[in-house]
């Protein structure tokens, strides 16, 4: 999946908790902003293992090293890399209300959503739950689409973008006029 599809899809899903807790978040706009920064960086991070990805091209040395040593859609595409940090950040965040934990929480959630989104594409992420599951699949192969081809660019991406625009509009209205 391309970076732009990852970003929009992750934000669409990542906004859902904001709607659930919107009455509590109305005076905590700084927390919302930091959470969204975490989400967007986190959802681009896993493709650091692919030197042609948008993040990989920014850090070619690190990206090339990870790609050679562990390969693409392997370690950084493993959900278990993020879950411990997410639980820790959630626990510490609710205890201390420090913004850095909200950032980590958003980052890990964004990365996990990236992995699930990659599962919608042809190549899938069979390593997503290793060593617990040796072959992780969400959709059968015939229901998945090819990265950066017609379906993703002209159907999936526009629909998800539209949902995101509606979500942002609703959320901004709620924050401003309540
Ligand atoms: Zn990926």
Automatic annotation (TrEMBL):
It comes from the Bacteria. The chain crosses the membrane at residues 6-21, 75-92, 99-116, 154-177. Signal peptide: none annotated. Keywords: Membrane, Transmembrane, Transmembrane helix. The keyword Transmembrane helix applies. This is Metal-dependent hydrolase. It comes from Poseidonibacter ostreae. The lineage of its organism: Bacteria, Pseudomonadati, Campylobacterota, Epsilonproteobacteria, Campylobacterales.
